[in-house]
Design a protein that fits this description.
The chain is built from 5 helices and 12 strands. By secondary structure, it is an alpha+beta fold. It has one domain: 2-Layer Sandwich (BirA Bifunctional Protein, domain 2). Strands 1, 2, 3, 7, 8, 9, 10, 11 and 12 form a 9-stranded mixed sheet that branches. Helix 3 packs antiparallel against helix 5. It is globular and about 45 Å long.
C-alpha cells in the first residue's frame, strides 16, 4: 500500500522539526523501514528531525522485553518492533506518533525524553476534558475508565540508535478495544484499556493532531530545559 504523507503548513514547523500527517493506513513494516532510513539520515546529518502522525492496519508488535506467554490470541500479524517494552496493539482508530529526534542536540537523556512525551500527551488529553496521569512503575498514559477503574489510554515505546530516537507513542481515539484481547497489553494484566470514544469524547484524527501540535512547544521546551539543566551540572 502506498503511503500518502501530508506535510503541515510551514508556520507549524519549528526549526528543523518536520511534521507529517498520514492520511491512509500505513503497514507497520513499512513504517519500520521508513523510520530506519530516516534515523540513519538524521544521524548522518542528511535529514532533519521528523514527527510523524499516522495509523496502522491491525497488528501486534513485540518489544524487546516481549514474553511469548503474553501473546494469547495472535489473530493479527505479529511484528518484532525493536523498541523497548512488551506486546502492544496498533490499529485503525488509534493515533500513533513516531518521533525521530536527535537527542545529541536535545540532551542525551532517554528518561527525560519519555517523561516529556508523557507530559505532552497528558496535556493534550486535558484539552479534550480527559484527566490523565503517569503511574509509578507503569510506562504509559492512564485515566479513569467509565467504570471508575484505572485504565490505559496511551502507550509509549521508544528506541534510540546513535542518539537518534525512533518509535514514540499511541493514543486510543476510537479503536476496536476487543482487539487488545489477543495480548496482555504491555505485560499488565490487572488494568484494562480504554479510549476517548469509550469515555464519550468523539475526536477525529485531525482534531487530535491539531491539539497535539498546539502543545508541541511545551514538549520541545521540556527537552530543552532538561538539556540546559544537565549542562549546568
Amino acid at each position: 500500500m502506498a503511503s500518502t504523507l501530508s506535510s503541515l503548513p510551514p508556520q507549524i514547523a519549528a526549526g528543523s522539526l518536520e511534521w507529517r500527517r498520514e492520511e491512509a493506513l500505513v503497514p507497520y513494516r513499512t513504517a519500520l523501514e521508513t523510520m530506519e532510513t530516516r534515523n540513519a539520515a538524521i544521524s548522518a546529518g542528511e535529514a532533519g528531525e521528523l514527527a510523524w502522525l499516522l495509523e496502522h492496519p491491525p497488528v501486534y508488535t513485540a518489544g524487546t522485553s516481549a514474553d511469548p506467554a503474553e501473546l494469547t490470541d495472535p489473530r493479527f500479524e505479529v511484528v518484532e518492533a525493536g523498541r523497548g517494552g512488551r506486546y502492544t496493539y496498533h490499529g485503525p482508530g488509534q493515533r500513533v506518533g513516531y518521533l525521530l529526534l536527535d537527542l545529541g542536540k536535545r540532551g542525551k537523556d532517554v528518561r527525560c525524553f519519555v517523561h516529556a512525551i508523557e507530559g505532552w500527551v497528558i496535556d493534550t488529553l486535558a484539552d479534550f476534558g480527559v484527566p490523565a496521569w503517569r503511574a509509578e512503575g507503569r510506562v504509559g498514559i492512564w485515566c479513569e475508565d467509565v467504570d471508575g477503574r484505572e485504565a490505559k489510554i496511551g502507550a509509549i515505546g521508544v528506541r534510540v540508535r546513535r542518539w537518534v530516537t525512533m518509535h514514540g507513542f499511541s493514543v486510543n481515539l476510537d479503536p476496536d478495544l476487543s482487539h487488545f484481547g489477543g495480548i496482555v497489553p504491555c505485560g499488565i494484566e490487572e488494568f484494562g484499556v480504554t479510549s476517548l470514544a469509550r469515555l464519550g469524547k468523539h475526536v477525529s484524527n485531525a482534531q487530535w493532531d491539531e491539539a497535539l501540535i498546539a502543545r508541541a512547544d511545551g514538549f520541545l521546551g521540556a527537552l530543552e530545559a532538561a538539556r540546559l539543566k544537565a549542562c549546568r551540572t
